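To whoever is on call:

I kicked off a structure prediction for a single chain this morning and the downstream step that reads the tokens threw a length-mismatch warning. I double-checked the sequence; it's 66 residues and nothing unusual in it as far as I can see. Pasting both halves so you can look.
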Amino acid sequence: MDWNRLINMVTRMFLRKAVNKGIDFAARRGKSPATLTPEDRQRAQSAKEMADKAKKAARIGRRFMK
């Protein structure tokens, strides 16, 4: 395997995890999961679902822009 492809693959894996962690953090509004109230948990879950839908729409948009 080419070194450039390997580095790109590892970089993408790292960035994907970092973006997912950032979305989870933003959905919780910076609170730790242990301190969330049931209302906060529901709000965080709906925010994560909206983020997942936005990521899916972005993937579809990129597919059609090729």
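Update from on-call: the warning came from a stale cache, not from the record. Cleared it. Sanity check on the structure: The chain has one domain: 3-65.
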